[in-house]
Amino acid sequence: MSKKELKTIKPDVKWNEITPGGVIDSAGNAHLFKTGDWRSMKPVWNSEKCKNCLLCYPVCPDSSILIKDGKMVGIDYDHCKGCGVCAKVCPFKAIDFVEEA
Length: 101
Prior knowledge:
This protein is mainly beta. Helices cover 9% and strands 19% of the residues.
């Protein structure tokens, strides 16, 4: 695949400036689209309850669990869609969900 110039999608984009039906026309561009505003439930991470087992990391479909030096450091709210899988697998109940404000 040839290297394509990636467009930055701005909030004021017009319908005729995007791909039809939201077609993804190149690989590795998910980070360009802030899809976190889709969610209705927001994960809240409690660092005191977290034991850094990292069971949440591999199950997150959006790579929204932020890891640094082998430890969880937070949640990427720009991309988290609020599916709740991370909270479901956490044996320490370190991730809870609240209604998005």
